[in-house]
Amino acid sequence: MLELKEVNVFYGVIHALKNLNIKIEEGEVVTLIGANGAGKSTTLKAISGIQKLKSGEITLNGESINNVGAPDIVKLGISHVPEGRRIFSRMSVMENLEMGAFTRTDKSEVKKDFEKIFSLFPRLLERKEQMAGTLSGGEQQMLAIGRGLMSRPKLLLLDEPSMGLAPIIVKEIFSIIKEINKAGTTVLLVEQNAYMALNAADRAYIIRNGEIEMQGDAKTMLQDEKVKKAYLEG
Ligand code: ATP
């Protein structure tokens, strides 16, 4: 479905992504894990057209999306839920969800999707008129994911959905991610919480200093001594 081939990204002199190769098949949950500053967010930004590549290629179903702008990438079926959620805090829950549907013209279908989002996140339904900025951290994350789903993505990019949340809420969010995947959306999940991410994913890539250090079956990686030492303990 999506492929990154020898992707290089620079911020000035900083070489943030070094010959990155990543492949995501339709229907998978793939996780990209790594420490702070490893290049995880940059990878998602490159895919969603926010960050330009220095070289390399990103293809969606075999077609290059290198020169496609961010709004058109949403139209092609890729939705990016950024780190830190970035909800519109002075807008209501409902208005935030409406913003997620900005590329769509099928208004009656959009209405149906509100219902789908609310059945996935009943807490958002209870709070649909509430200002988004007054939601709890977990609810804001749910709203950010809900907003991301409003464009009906085939591929959902999630940047650290567990950040700053209590363990019980993290569990809830991860179980919803699995539900979203079961309903047919492919997921690329960026996480520092390697344990939760490997448990939720089919396959995983570990990124270190902008390079893929390791890749493979997620459950096998959970048992790997090197992975345990570097990413699962402490
Ligand atoms: P974190 O988990 O801390 O968010 P990350 O793995 O997502 O980390 P990135 O945000 O992709 O890491 O950053 C990769 C590298 O690029 C880091 O060294 C970071 O300092 C640098 N970087 C990121 N954004 C910029 C920017 N806008 N300008 C300059 N350098 C940047």
What does this structure look like?
By secondary structure, this protein is α/β, with parallel strands linked by helices. The chain has a single domain (2-232), classed as 3-Layer(aba) Sandwich (Rossmann fold), CATH 3.40.50.300. It has helices at 40-47, 70-75, 93-100, 107-120, 122-126, 137-149, 167-182, 194-200, 218-223, 225-232; strands at 2-11, 14-24, 29-33, 55-60, 63-64, 78-81, 155-159, 186-191, 203-208, 211-217. A 6-stranded mixed β-sheet has the order 6-7-8-3-9-10, with helices on both faces. A hairpin with a 2-residue loop joins β4 (55-60) and β5. The chain is globular, with a radius of gyration of 17 Å. The mean pLDDT is 93. Bound molecules: adenosine-5'-triphosphate. Adenosine-5'-triphosphate binds next to β2 and α1. GO terms for molecular function: ATP binding; ATP hydrolysis activity; branched-chain amino acid transmembrane transporter activity. Keywords: Amino-acid transport, ATP-binding, Nucleotide-binding, Transport.
CATH architecture verdict:
3-Layer(aba) Sandwich
Approximate helicity band? 25-40%
Order of helices and strands: EEEHEEHEHHHHEHEHEEHH
CATH class: Alpha Beta
Structural class: alpha/beta
Number of helices: 10
Quick one: CATH superfamily? P-loop containing nucleotide triphosphate hydrolases
Pick out the low-confidence regions. Answer: none
Biggest sheet, in brief?
6 strands, mixed
Distance between the termini: 35 Å
**Fraction in beta strands:** 25-35%
Number of domain units: 1
Total count of strands: 10
Ligands bound here? adenosine-5'-triphosphate
Largest sheet, spatial ordering of strands: 6-7-8-3-9-10
The name of the CATH topology is Rossmann fold
